[in-house]
Predict the structure.
Amino acid sequence: MATDVHRPVTTASPTTQAASAVRVEGLTRAFDGRAVIDRLDLDVRPGEFVALLGRSGCGKSTLLRILAGLDRDIEGTVLVPRRKAVAFQAPRLMPWKRVWRNVLLGLPGSPERGLAERALEEVGLKHRTNAWPKTLSGGEAQRASLARALVREPDLLLLDEPFGALDALTRIKAQRLVDELWQRRGCAVLLVTHDVEEAVLLADRVLVMDAGVIAYETEIDLDRPRGISDPRFGELRAELLRRLGVDADDGSAETAAAA
Amino acid sequence: MSISHAPPDPVSDIPGISKSDDSAEPVEGPGAATRSAEPEPVPASEPELVPIVPASTRRARVPRWLRRTSGPLALLALWQVLSSTGTLSADILASPGTIAGVGRDLLADGSLTSAMGVSLQRVAVGMLLGTLVGTSLALVAGLFRVGEDLVDASVQMLRTVPFVGLIPLFIIWFGIGEAPKVAIITLGVSFPLYLNVYAGIRGVDSQLIEAGESLGLSRWGLVRHVILPGALPGAMTGLRYSLGIAWLALVFAEQINADSGIGFLMVQARDFLRTDVIVVCLIVYAFLGLIADFIVRTLERLLLQWRPTFTGR
């Protein structure tokens, strides 16, 4: 079973093993006997930005849900920080709570409104503090959802295709916002996405999931801020697309490529 | 994808649809400014333009409260006309004027006010008990699977028994005092509340529950911040049904074996063939129902203002 408590890696542990924000060993998750995640291993360093790519249905969202503690029908070892937060593809704000109450929802004790206001200010949404969720635009709702995640001061931020439902312009802004917030907060981030460019733009390391395991991974050592005009950006993008079974040149799918 | 946005083929051979706008416009451009208001035969390529009228000009000037009262007032006027012309004889239905007079008399001698007091008290106690019973059962069945298994089947079975048919049994059990009347109202009120609160709880979006879990809400926190607010629209619908049934149950309960209340006043009036008093009592029922509805509407406006649903045009 999953352990919800972060095991502090002390100096006594082997020197080759650095501290990690996520440690997954031999994780298996089966739906009706079909293993979607099959003995998967994963380590994420504290403060590292990891993007997880994979074709539809490869189990990447399942992995994120397991790390979030939402899916516990698993076998293997999963260690995650106690303080973690999730932003979903849909903002999932409670429609019956004003924005600031949504941000504070689930925090221990009775936190004051100022805390929510500061978090909302960080995502540029201070002017909508008292609004009902139904009056927010798609981008605003997603930023509110991000503020709700950040107010928990997570050591691990899990993002499940948070830009998937946004239009192209809003998505660019939201990506920049996440980049800024990550650099300021220094928390580890696991971003699940379909978008190869987004992964290369934001992540320190990109993982490609296939057949229930991490099939390929690559460090992205481009200087930040990154631009898609960089020739190395194109190379990384093409390689990742190839690993995902899409040939960048003619766009045809190759099923065996990622294996 | 891009094919659907391609410009129409200028040499299209479909009659009526004809040439593309691009080729037609330069020819007509200079003439457009001098064109007067008189309609000119429009070339087939130009679509007819229809103005979109702003909502503010379309909205009726009549205030809503006036519109809402106009229906009942029209009925009242029709009734008065029928009575004064003699189409409706006083033996069958007294005229509105007479009824107003009788109502004043009944109020003056205190019989109507005391009857209303008794009836209101019965409804209030019955509603309170019924709300408690219905809501608690719905919570037990809605929140816990064990509760569902234990409670739901029995309630679904019992709710099909017509509660009015239980009046004789209740009189044998509880005698002829207040107890059987309150019990009938409680019973009538419980079922619609149960059904709607239960459905409301089970209709809460599981994505929101999951979001609540990911935010670290405890079990009770989930119930309080996610499930109960999510079930509130259903509960309000249940409350409306319940109030309607409460008045219905009251009428039944008070017409059998009662010695006070509006129903008793009606039974008495029937014995003396006083249609005017009967109508006064019916109007009182109607007004009490209206007030109850107003209370629920106000509650809905206050509690459900977050709801992003259609509110009518």
Observations:
- Chain A touches chain B at residues 68-70, 85-86, 88, 90, 92, 94-97, 105-108, 132-134, 148, 152 (CB under 8 Å).
